[in-house]
User: Which sequence fits this backbone?
C-alpha cells in the first residue's frame, strides 16, 4: 500500500489559452472603475477629505447599521435556512420564493414596502407611533432597510450550509455513543462554522452597500441614517473628491471583511 | 449479557428480511448473504438507526425496540460501528478521527487518549497519525474507521464489510488486530461479510440470509 502522491501528468490541452483570452474583457470591465476610484481616491485632496468629521461620521453610521442588520439577518434568516434545508413536506417552494424576492426587487420598492409597514401611517407604524416608537427616518429604519435587502443572501447560503451537514456522520457519532450535546459540539458546529461565517460575511457586504431602500425608508440624516453610500451620492453633487475618498473607504472595508472572514475560515 | 433479535425488516421497499437469533457474551456472529438481502439494514436496526417493521430487539431484559418503536436510542446501546463507507471527517487528521471515538462516548480525556493511542498502534496508523483523512487511500481509511470504533471502548462491535478495501497482506494484520480487539470487549459482536473464511480465527458463528430469512449455518 503505497501512499506517496504520484506526480501529476502535465495538462496538455490544446485550447488552454481560449478561456483565459475570453475572460480578459470581463476582467477589464470590473477592474477599470475600481482602478479609477483608487487612482483618484488616493490623491492628497481626497485623503484629506476622508478625515473630515462628516466622512468619519458616515463610515461610523455605515459600520453600525451594517453590523446591526447582519445580526438581525442572522437571527431571522438562519432559522429559515435551517427549515428549508430539512426539505419540509409543504411550503418550501413558496417560502424560498418569498425569501428570495428582496434579491430581485428594486431596493426603492423595498423601501416603499417598509414605509407602508413601519412608516408613520403604515400597518404597524401607527401602533408603534402610539407607544412612542417611531421607526421611519431613524437609525432603526436604516437597519431594517439593510436587513431586508440582505436577507435573501443569508437564507440562500445558509440553506447550503445546513444541507452540507452529513447525516451519515451524525448517525455514526450516535452509534459511538454521542449525546445530542456532544454531537452539536463536535460534529455539527465544526461542519457549520465555515459556511455560516461565509454567509454572514456575504450578508454584511450587501448591507454595507445598501442605498435605495435606505434613502426611501430612512432618509439621509447625518449621524443617524446617512451611511457611506448615501453620503457618496450627496457629495457627488458638489464635492467629487470627498465622494471618491469615501467610496474608496467602502472598498477598503469590504475588502477587509473578505480578508478577515477568509482568515477565520482558514484558521480552523 | 446476550442479545435477542426477532425482527422483520423492510429492505428498500419490497423484499423483507426475517431475522431470529440470539447471541451470547463473547460471541462473534458473521452475517453472510447475497447483495441487497438486507444485511446492512439488519445491522442498522440493531444499532437503532432504522426501526424494524415488526418484532423486538433486546439485550438481556432491556428492550431496545418493540415493533417500529425505538425504545433505547443508538447512543445508549454501547456499539462501536464501522459502516461500509469509512465515514471519516475529511478535514481532520487520522489521530483526531480515531480520538473522536472516545469523545463521542464521553470518556475521560486520559482514557480516550490512551484508547486512541492503543488502536492507532494496533491498526498500524502511527505513521499516518497527522495526515488529513481526505488524503488517505481506501485501505488506510478503512483501518482508521476500525481504530475509531475500537477506541470508543464499546461493549459490542458492528462491522460492515470491514476488510473490503484492504490488500491481501494488510488484511491479515487487520484481522489479527480485530481478533485481539474483540477479545478485550464484552460482546456479542456482529460482522457483515462476503468472506466468512477471512474471520476463521475469531471462531465465529455464521448466520446466512437465504430466501429472506436469516438461518444459522
Assistant:
Amino acid at each position: 500500500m503505497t501512499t506517496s502522491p504520484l506526480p501529476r501528468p502535465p495538462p496538455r490541452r490544446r485550447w488552454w489559452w481560449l478561456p483565459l483570452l475570453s475572460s480578459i474583457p470581463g476582467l477589464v470591465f470590473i477592474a477599470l472603475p475600481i482602478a479609477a476610484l483608487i487612482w483618484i481616491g488616493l490623491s492628497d485632496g481626497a485623503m484629506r477629505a476622508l478625515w473630515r468629521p462628516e466622512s468619519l461620521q458616515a463610515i461610523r453610521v455605515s459600520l453600525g447599521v451594517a453590523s446591526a442588520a447582519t445580526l438581525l439577518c442572522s437571527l431571522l434568516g438562519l432559522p429559515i435556512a435551517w427549515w428549508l434545508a430539512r426539505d419540509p413536506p409543504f411550503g418550501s417552494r413558496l417560502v424560498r420564493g418569498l425569501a428570495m424576492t428582496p434579491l430581485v426587487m428594486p431596493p426603492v420598492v423595498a423601501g416603499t414596502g417598509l414605509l407602508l409597514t413601519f412608516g408613520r401611517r403604515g400597518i404597524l407604524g401607527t401602533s408603534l407611533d402610539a407607544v412612542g416608537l417611531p421607526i421611519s427616518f431613524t437609525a432603526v429604519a436604516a437597519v431594517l432597510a439593510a436587513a431586508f435587502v440582505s436577507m435573501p443572501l443569508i437564507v440562500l447560503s445558509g440553506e447550503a450550509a445546513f444541507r452540507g451537514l452529513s447525516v451519515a456522520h451524525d448517525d455514526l457519532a450516535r452509534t459511538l455513543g454521542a449525546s445530542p450535546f456532544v454531537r452539536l459540539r463536535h460534529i455539527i458546529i465544526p461542519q457549520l462554522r465555515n459556511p455560516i461565517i461565509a454567509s454572514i460575511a456575504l450578508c454584511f457586504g450587501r448591507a454595507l452597500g445598501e442605498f435605495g431602500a435606505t434613502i426611501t425608508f430612512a432618509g439621509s440624516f447625518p449621524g443617524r441614517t446617512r451611511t457611506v453610500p448615501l453620503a457618496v451620492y450627496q457629495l457627488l453633487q458638489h464635492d467629487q473628491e470627498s465622494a471618491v475618498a469615501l467610496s474608496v473607504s467602502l472598498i477598503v472595508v469590504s475588502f477587509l471583511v473578505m480578508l478577515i472572514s477568509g482568515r477565520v475560515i482558514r484558521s480552523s | 449479557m446476550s442479545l435477542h433479535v426477532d425482527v422483520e425488516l423492510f429492505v428498500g421497499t419490497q423484499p423483507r428480511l426475517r431475522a431470529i437469533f440470539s447471541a451470547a457474551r463473547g460471541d462473534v456472529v458473521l452475517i453472510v448473504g447475497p447483495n441487497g438481502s438486507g444485511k446492512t439494514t439488519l445491522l442498522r436496526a440493531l444499532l437503532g438507526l432504522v426501526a424494524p417493521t415488526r418484532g423486538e430487539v433486546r439485550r438481556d431484559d432491556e428492550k431496545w425496540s418493540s415493533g417500529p418503536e425505538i425504545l433505547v436510542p443508538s447512543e445508549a446501546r454501547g456499539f462501536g460501528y464501522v459502516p461500509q463507507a469509512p465515514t471519516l471527517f475529511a478535514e481532520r487528521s487520522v489521530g483526531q478521527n480515531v480520538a473522536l471515538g472516545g469523545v463521542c462516548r464521553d470518556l475521560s480525556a486520559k482514557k480516550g487518549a490512551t484508547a486512541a493511542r492503543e488502536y492507532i498502534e494496533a491498526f498500524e496508523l502511527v505513521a499516518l497519525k497527522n495526515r488529513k483523512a481526505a488524503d488517505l487511500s481506501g485501505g488506510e481509511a478503512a483501518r482508521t474507521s476500525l481504530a475509531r470504533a475500537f477506541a470508543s471502548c464499546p461493549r459490542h462491535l458492528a462491522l460492515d464489510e470491514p476488510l473490503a478495501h484492504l490488500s491481501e497482506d494488510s488484511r491479515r494484520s487487520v484481522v489479527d488486530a480485530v481478533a485481539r480487539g474483540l477479545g478485550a470487549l464484552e460482546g456479542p459482536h456482529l460482522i457483515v461479510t462476503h468472506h466468512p473464511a477471512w474471520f476463521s480465527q475469531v471462531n465465529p458463528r455464521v448466520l446466512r440470509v437465504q430466501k429472506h430469512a436469516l438461518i444459522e449455518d
